[in-house]
Design goal:
It is a single chain. This protein has about 250 residues and is α/β, with parallel strands linked by helices. It has one domain (about 5-250): 3-Layer(aba) Sandwich (Rossmann fold), CATH 3.40.50. It has helices at about 40-50, 75-80, 95-110, 120-135, 135-140, 150-165, 180-195, 210, 235-240, 245-250, and strands spanning about 5-15, 15-25, 30-35, 55-65, 65-70, 80-85, 170, 200-205, 215-220, 225-230. The strands form two sheets. A six-stranded mixed beta sheet has the order 6-7-8-3-9-10, with helices on both faces. Strands 2-1-4-5 form a four-stranded antiparallel beta sheet. Strand 4 and strand 5 form a beta hairpin. The longest helix has 15 residues, at about 95-110. About 40% of the residues are buried. Bound molecules: adenosine-5'-diphosphate and magnesium ion (MG) (2 copies). One magnesium ion (MG) binds near residues 38 and 43.
């Protein structure tokens, strides 16, 4: 069964149609890159999949593990294994990072019919994951994302993914605001999480990120639809030619 199946998705924001008949199938273990110019609807797609309020599906179907997502609240989708790595992670004052991770992990375990993780096992896992990502202990004691640098916020997102083990990782322009070293660390963190059962939707408008996170498929999103799909060579073609040809095709 497909992990994510999107058929003829139409969606709008504030009554403005953004997605206009988008179809995409992601099977377990696959890495799909979605590339497209600014304003094409890439973030709208990720917000729609995660159920962010204000993003309204007007037509089509989105299924995750065979379940219709439109009937599920955002937190249910997260518990079912969808994780969105935000382009601009928000600061959450008052919620300690460690507490946040433990609460989120237990919610996910509960949804899978598992018991709460015990404190020692949690800390062991947390230590291993933070070490791999070069995250200092001090960061774990701070409120989530508060005062984190751009690179730290991205690493914090990758740490959340490492702890929560989502089945679908959506990376929305993960490279934005990152210098090359921070990008490499974040991308290696993502690559370490790749597995035959876990899929990635890697949204970007630069080919550069795909040198680090190698996709199996590349799709061009223009004017709310996927106008072309191919292998990773398509990303290079886009980098050379730009999006102009694709955008005019879509119009
Ligand atoms: P991309 O991520 O590809 O740059 P977006 O999905 O962010 O594109 O935006 C697609 C279009 O939807 C843009 O025209 C943008 O202005 C509009 N849009 C997205 N989110 C909102 C919002 N919350 N309110 C109003 N317009 C929005
Ligand atoms: Mg944008
Ligand atoms: Mg965007």
């Amino acid at each position: 069964m497909a992990l994510l199946e999107i058929i003829n998705l139409h969606a709008q924001v504030e009554d403005k149609p953004i997605l206009k008949g988008l179809s995409l199938t992601v099977n377990p273990g696959e890495v799909h890159a979605i590339m497209g110019p600014n304003g094409a609807g890439k973030s709208t797609l990720s917000n729609l999949i995660t159920g962010r309020p204000g993003y309204e599906q007007t037509e089509g179907t989105v299924r995750f593990k065979g379940q219709d997502l439109s009937a599920m609240a955002p937190e249910e989708r997260a518990r079912a294994g969808i994780f969105l790595c935000f382009q601009y992670p928000v600061e959450i004052p008052g919620v300690g990072f460690t507490t946040f991770l433990r609460t989120a992990l237990n919610a996910r375990r509960k949804a899978r019919g598992e018991s709460e993780i015990d404190a020692a096992a949690f800390l062991t896992r947390l230590k291993a994951a933070t070490k791999a990502l070069g995250i200092p202990d001090a960061m774990l004691k701070r409120p989530l994302n508060v005062g984190f640098s751009g690179g730290e916020k991205k690493r914090a997102e990758v740490l959340q993914m490492a702890m929560l083990e989502p089945d679908l990782m959506i990376l929305d322009e993960m490279d934005s605001g990152l210098d090359i070293d921070a990008l490499r660390i974040a991308a290696e963190g993502v690559n370490a999480l790749r597995s035959p059962t876990r899929s990635v939707l890697c949204i970007t408008h630069y080919q550069r990120l795909l040198d680090y996170i190698e996709p199996d498929f590349v799709h061009v999103l223009a004017d709310g639809r996927i106008v072309r799909s191919g292998g990773k060579e398509l990303a290079r073609e886009l980098e050379e030619k730009g999006y102009a040809d694709f955008v005019s095709q879509a119009a």
